[in-house]
Specification:
Blueprint: E1 9-13, H1 18-28, E2 35-39, E3 45-49, E4 57-61, H2 68-84, E5 89-94, H3 113-123, E6 128-132, E7 147-150, H4 153-161, E8 170-174, H5 180-190, E9 194-200, E10 209-214, E11 221-229, H6 233-244, E12 250-257, H7 263-268, E13 272-278, E14 292-295, H8 298-309
Parallel strand pairs: 1-4, 4-5, 5-6, 6-7, 8-9, 8-11, 11-12, 12-13, 13-14
Antiparallel strand pairs: 2-3, 9-10
Helix pairs in contact: 1-8, 4-5
Bound molecules: ribose-5-phosphate.
The site of ribose-5-phosphate (R5P) has 15 residues, from strand 11 and helix 6.
């Protein structure tokens, strides 16, 4: 900690994020607060902090990934338990928030699920949220309290910078305009041009098609960037479209490596040479194969927690 604070920090590692939580605590130089989570035989969840948290600046690290609803309920119970135990402030640290995809009413009679989740967090008294690469930034407006939003970009760019000896040979690509702004930030960070795919999904079957690519990929190595891999369909469609237009090697860098069942095999068999994901998602539908590398965002989360605790800037971590 850079400045002295009278309030102590307490960090609880929820059952969706034990490894990331442990790494964050190591980085902060503290032990995770002892805690227990029990799932009873009928499926209901019980949580309890086993140490005093009165007056402490408390952080619960709990991804909202598979099993999504169970993990979200555990997060709500943690916030409630810590508020009732008189923690001074409770921050929900959500490395990956699956319901971020439910951020709009673009069809009749649907729920805006991301907003419902933040309403629930507010109702149990959550004081602040710390999260990473939400599917869309406007989701921050669904929570009426402070939300700090981190980007894995800096960590991922560090990994790829080492590969990009000759910058003229590279482009950064997004499979759709939705991630376009982030792709441009990657392009700035790595100092290479950006191309954008025109992705279409006709329905909810998770089948993605790339109609065309805006920009030139011929004879270039292509780094496709994205926020999430679910089925791998978007990455593979973009990689195949780039290959069809004469691209050389294809790489991918994605913050949240969810990889639902069969994604691993499809990506292994694909034209993509290497895929880098972060450690925001710990649940594995299938073990990762050799094409997939993981880089840790624990140092970034630890730095953000330290800065929140000390009332320092978070945006300073991501120079424009
Ligand atoms: C879409 O807008 C997202 O940014 C991802 O591209 C998408 O959710 C990835 O899903 P999948 O791996 O199933 O194509």
């Amino acid at each position: 900690m850079k400045k002295h604070q009278s309030k102590e920090i307490a960090v609880i590692c929820g059952s969706a994020s034990p490894d990331l939580g442990k790494k964050i605590c190591e980085r902060l130089g503290i032990k995770p607060t002892a805690a227990e989570v029990i799932t009873f035989s009928e499926g209901n969840t019980f949580v309890r902090a086993l140490e005093n948290v009165r007056g402490k600046d408390t952080y619960i690290i709990q991804g909202v990934n598979y099993p999504v609803d169970r993990n979200f309920m555990e997060l709500l119970f943690w916030v409630d338990a810590l508020k009732l135990a008189s923690a001074a402030q409770v921050t929900a640290v959500i490395p990956f928030f699956s319901y971020a995809k439910g951020d709009k009413k673009d069809e009749p009679r649907v729920s805006i699920r991301a907003r419902v989740c933040f309403d629930a967090l507010e109702a149990v008294g959550c004081d602040r949220v710390l999260t990473m690469d939400l599917h869309s930034p406007q989701i921050q407006g669904f929570f009426r309290k402070p939300m700090d939003h981190l980007y894995a970009r800096t960590v991922i760019a560090d990994y790829f910078r080492k590969k990009m000896q000759k910058k003229d040979d590279w482009v950064v690509a997004s499979a759709d305009v939705g991630y376009g702004k982030n792709a441009f930030k990657f392009g700035q960070e790595l100092d290479v041009p950006v191309v954008i795919g025109n992705k279409l999904r006709k329905d909810h079957t998770e089948n993605a098609q790339i109609w065309n690519i805006v920009g030139d990929v011929k004879d270039k190595n292509v780094l496709i960037v994205d926020d999430i891999i679910f089925t791998g369909g978007s990455l593979i469609a973009m990689a195949e479209a780039a290959k069809a237009q004469g691209a050389k090697d294809i790489y991918a860098a994605v913050t949240h490596g969810v990889l639902t069942a069969s994604a691993q095999q499809k990506l292994s068999d694909s034209v993509i040479k290497e895929i880098v994901v972060t450690d925001t998602v710990e649940y594995r539908f299938e073990p990762f194969g050799p094409k997939i590398k993981t880089v840790s965002v624990a140092p970034l989360f630890a730095e953000a927690i330290s800065r929140i605790h000390n009332n320092e800037s978070i945006s300073a971590l991501f120079p424009a």
